[in-house]
Amino acid sequence: MADTPLAALKVQELLREVRVDYSKTRVIEAAVAAVVDLLSGLADEEVSPSLASAFARDLGVPEDKARFKFRKPEWVRVVGSYGTHTIAKPVQQVDIAVRIPKSCFHEKDYLNHRYHVKRALYLVVLEKHLCQCSAIKTVDWGSFLEDARKPVLVLQPGPSERGATSKFVICIVPTISEEVFDTDKLVPLRNNVREVKSQEGSALATPHYNSSILEDMVVEHNCAWLQSVFLESEAMRDAVLLLKVWFRQRRMQASADYVNGFLLSMLMAHLLTNSGGKRINLHMTALQIFRVIMDAIVTSSTFEKGVFIQTGEVAGRSAEVRKALLQTFDVVICDSTGLVNLSSRVTKSALAELKEEAVRTLSAMKDRNDEGFDVLFMTQSDYCSKFDYHVRLQATTKEASSLAHCMDMECTRTYEQNVESLLTRGLGDRARIIRVLRRSCPTPWSPDQGLPDARKVTIFAGILLNNLDIALRMADVGPSADNKKEAAKFRAFWGPKSELRRFKDGMITETAVWECEGWQRHLIIQRIVEHVLCRHLSLDVSLIHVVSGQLDFALLENGTDTTTSTPKLLEALDILSKRLRTIENLPLQVVSVQPVSAAFRSTDVFPPLPHPLAAEADTQKIPSKPVASHVDPLNILLQLEGSGKWPDDPIGIAKTKSAFCLEIARSMQEKWGVGCIATEDAVDILMEGYTFRLSVLYSKDLGQPDKSVGELLPSRTEGLMQDGHLQNAHASLLQALHGACPAYGPTVRLAKRWMWSHLFSGVISDEVVELLVAYTFVKSAPNAPPSSRLTGFLRFLLLLVHYDWALAPLVVDVNGDFTTADLDRIVSQFESVRRKFQGGEGGGPAMYISTPYDSVSKTWTQHSPSPAVLKRLIAYAKSSADLIVSLIKGEEDDSRWLSVFRTPLTCYDALILFHPEALPHPSRTLFQPEVHSKAVIKRAPVEGISPWVSQNVLRRGIRTAREHLLIGFNPVLEFAEELQVKYGKVCSLWYDAAGSSGIMGLTFSNSAHVTKAKSAKRKQVENGQAIIDLDSFVRDVADIGEGLVKSIHILSR
């Protein structure tokens, strides 16, 4: 996203949307004026501690220490974003600082939360009077920066005399002057909460407590300085608006420990000063200033040495105080008074996440096209889609009660900090970021309710993983057994999981072991989190919810994941490749063996397991248990040596390929004794437990991609999905992606299974699903590529929901093959297609997907899905995504994870149920169909149809048993294709091509409708002028599916 005129135009349009017109704020200004007048004229009165007794109790302040005489504010003035004209819609708030007089406090009130209680009591008095103000509609309680010890008042202005209303709210923020308390008593290393002690009984520093008082002393000073800076420069104000839009889109304001808009404004103003290196000047544009801020956040020295603002007006604190600030706080942004660390609430993890966001933002700003603007300011990211793993837990009564409220930080903040430190130590280098989100104070709330109960607070944590080879390792190697001290610490932390292990190099170390099956490695993070939190927080495992493998059930067959066979499959492929290259009696030698089946790129939902009848007959024993009769072949493309003797006509080419297949089958059978089944199109090789379907690839086949621009030759318009060159190009494109992003394969498997479960197989091909998921990994900004299957699957659903399919092509450029000119050409072609649609000539693919081998979307989505089907798909995706988000947040019962793959059956006109024994893989069925309408026709199963090879057949020998194998036969797909040919104009078919759903849905087209005949038992389907008797239709469908169809149900709408 270069700083070009187009980018400037987009920025200006964005600013126009979020900028407040301060010339049209008469309603809120009138309300502010009324509040200021009211507060400035209040009378003195005695304040009883009973007005906030619960609040004082929770902070440990006795009543005699909370009594004081209320006096009117010394100073009431507008501060914050309204004063600097940097409010960004939709959040519109006017902050009013109310200075509490020094006479309301005792000189020792900085101790033991006395200040906080008197501050709250002062607000109680203000609330009483503000409720009587005619300009104010409601008065509610809030918290200052989500600190429950520091309440504020939130006022909703009422309508003006003319009935005009405002979207603004008013926030009353109490402040004090610098003379109220001796600031030397509030330096970071001082203890001002006497109960904060070490185990030995010595007093500990209370830096956060001290800072909570100091920050009220500098509100007026800092806001005045910001006004002097921002009111002089429109570009500075606009840059603040861009920053606010940026971090709101990333939901960074949702946690109390993030860098907020005020801190970013202070950082920006600091970079304008000499102490900030004058990295910003007033001649820069808003976008240039935004870039400087991002660069400053990323630069390590910015926060490592602390940010100490110096304006030249006030001398900073001594070097000792600076050292103390850096020693006691994770992040230091010290204001020009040198009194307070403005970022005292910002944690290391929040800063780490901010830096990572800034890194990706700078990368997006370097994008060679204009997508960077959308990534920066228009694309939302949230907790659920950002993190790889999500943890949700609730404190137990015992643990929460052990944390008193009146400490350096409030109870829940201490508990959140403990959880984060435990997870950080437990996961170590497995995770690059661990974020425990600091919860917001509950609303509505008031001081008479006391502080929030930690036992009722749900804690959320997000985990971003490092490289998966590191993150999912099966052992944490600790110190050597000779290092007694460190070994003892390791055992104390890991408990029974720690054991001594000897490694190959002879070292004996303490080790925490997480052994499991290969397909269960993604659950190691969950096991570590549960073990650490249960051990150190005395939690029951039922209180800990780690979102990791909740959808694994959809990928299991007979209780296991068939990906366990992938290493053996690749080994068998290697053996086959070597054998094919050594065949000597072929006219042209095999030079390349190219696997194209999804199993080879780890995207097959159910990779085939070794089949007992697919091994070499001479070495195979007769199985003692039933074996499956259906075998899924693995497609292999063979590239032969070049030759000019190939025939020119298509029929001759096909016959030559058939001859090669026959010769390959004969040679393989004679030389290695493998089972071979040859046809005119391919040859099936049965070896090593797998069935490989070999096809010959000829370089002059139609449909080969034009390598110069990646565009299909215009002569090829049909049969593209079966074209070998395109299948090979597709497989090659995605094979590399799985190697770079190991979570890609499992994510695709979940996405395909979801498509199957919701019966979209007939309208969305598996290759389309692979490309859609690939896009979420390649174009993951503003987030990092997902490292977990569940997060990747959620992003896949959100892509379907949020992508603007009507206005933009989806460009899947895995390897960066497209140049800027190619991208411009793709957009031009897309716009040309869409203009034809507006002209009534057809709109091209509803889902326009461009790839390096097919830039014009001719291969997979040319005819399907239609706009209506795409709309249906988006609705299903939105429903599933919303459910997953609710489950991650704990808003739904965990049993509802099953519902992600359970499809509603009430949206069809007719349902066809299949006999389980007629399905190719009945063990893959997730749910038994629940149809409540009465069947209009039923068919009994056909005798002899079974998914198993019987023992009688097996006893006849391996070679005889192989004759009963059904290789590549899918009765559901065959049934669907025959129905489509005969009734495709009457109804739409919705089915699971794998047959794992056991059901097919029918929806009658708009031109066909059901009418009642004279007899109540007779109905008709009308299609144009042809009228089809519904009873005949149902019988014909049952006859076509004889042996497969169990029953047919007509649903009333």
Task: Name a few traits of the molecule.
1053 residues; alpha+beta; five-stranded mixed β-sheet; 32 helices; 37% helix; 17% strand; elongated; Nucleolar protein 6; nucleus; Nrap_D6
Low-confidence stretches: 702-720, 1011-1019, 1022-1026
Radius of gyration: 35 Å
Strand content: 15-25%
- Give the termini distance in whole angstroms: 51 Å
Biggest β-sheet strands, sense, barrel: 5 strands, mixed
Subcellular location: Nucleus, Nucleolus
Keywords: Nucleus, RNA-binding
Organism: Sphagnum jensenii
Main location: nucleus
Fold blueprint:
Blueprint: H1 5-18, H2 26-40, E1 45-47, H3 53-58, E2 68-70, E3 75-79, H4 81-84, E4 93-99, H5 114-130, E5 136-144, E6 147-157, E7 169-175, H6 207-217, H7 219-230, H8 234-249, H9 261-270, H10 286-298, H11 300-304, E8 307-308, H12 319-328, E9 333-334, H13 348-365, H14 371-378, H15 383-386, E10 389-394, H16 397-401, H17 411-427, E11 431-437, E12 458-465, H18 468-471, E13 475-480, H19 484-494, E14 498-502, E15 508-513, H20 524-537, E16 544-547, E17 556-557, E18 560-561, H21 566-581, E19 590-595, E20 627-628, E21 630-631, E22 634-640, H22 650-672, E23 675-678, E24 683-687, E25 690-697, E26 705-706, E27 711-712, H23 724-740, H24 744-757, H25 766-778, H26 789-802, E28 810-811, H27 820-838, E29 849-850, H28 867-888, E30 910-914, E31 935-938, E32 948-949, H29 951-954, H30 958-962, E33 966-967, H31 971-983, E34 987-991, E35 999-1004, E36 1008-1012, E37 1019-1023, E38 1026-1029, H32 1030-1040, E39 1045-1050
Parallel strand pairs: 4-7, 8-9, 21-33, 22-25, 28-29
Antiparallel strand pairs: 1-2, 3-4, 5-6, 6-7, 10-12, 10-16, 11-12, 13-15, 14-15, 17-18, 19-22, 20-32, 23-24, 24-25, 26-27, 30-35, 30-39, 31-39, 34-35, 36-37, 37-38
Helix pairs in contact: 1-8, 8-9, 8-10, 10-13, 17-20, 24-25, 24-26, 25-26, 26-28
